[in-house]
Design goal:
By secondary structure, the protein is an all-alpha fold. It contains 8 helices and no strands. Helix 1 runs antiparallel to helix 2. The longest helix has 21 residues. The radius of gyration is 28 Å and the shape is elongated. The N and C termini lie far apart (92 Å).
Length: 171
């Protein structure tokens, strides 16, 4: 029986990949049948081959496990599929987001807050938060002005013996 659904064009390559991985002809057939079931499920839900991901496979096998009491498939059965689709260019490479600083997260969240508030574009472009970006970039990990560019000096700006954080002494 031929595979149907969005994964069908890659069925011959899948068989070759499984053989290369050392599967016996019988197990190649079993894995291709399971991939065919997954492909038909993708077709029913309107999902393309480019949308296949480990999370989507996990949802699929979770649905199968809830319907079946005697057969309990796991996502490991299709773990080779995502790698194969990535190797042949159907799925793009995994994109790892670059780490962001706390200040960048704050600016992004505040910007989204302003946009969600449906403010006018002119208001957004004149918003002081966008002018604060250079200030945040100057801040170091300790959130002290100039901490990113200088390593010397005291935290209170060089005024030893004084602090604006302490109140008057009580006797």
């Amino acid at each position: 029986m031929a595979m149907k659904g969005p994964l069908a064009p890659w069925a011959p390559g899948m068989a070759l990949r499984l053989e290369t991985l050392g599967y016996t002809p019988r197990m190649v057939h079993v894995h291709l049948q399971f991939a065919g079931t997954f492909s038909r499920s993708l077709l029913r839900h309107g999902v393309t081959a480019g949308d296949v991901s480990p999370e989507l496979i996990e949802q699929f096998v979770t649905g199968l496990r809830t319907k079946n009491t005697s057969w309990r498939p796991t996502s490991k059965r299709l773990s080779w599929l995502v790698e194969y689709l990535r190797d042949v260019g159907v799925i793009g490479p995994v994109v790892v987001p670059e780490p962001r600083t706390a200040q960048q997260v704050l600016l992004q969240r505040y910007s989204q807050y302003l946009v969600d508030g449906q403010l006018d574009c002119d208001v957004l472009s004149n918003n002081p938060i966008f002018r604060l970006t250079p200030f945040f970039e100057q801040m170091g990990p300790t959130n002290q002005p100039g901490a990113a560019r200088s390593s010397g000096g005291s935290a209170n700006g060089g005024m030893s013996g004084t602090s604006s954080l302490r109140g008057p002494r009580r006797s």
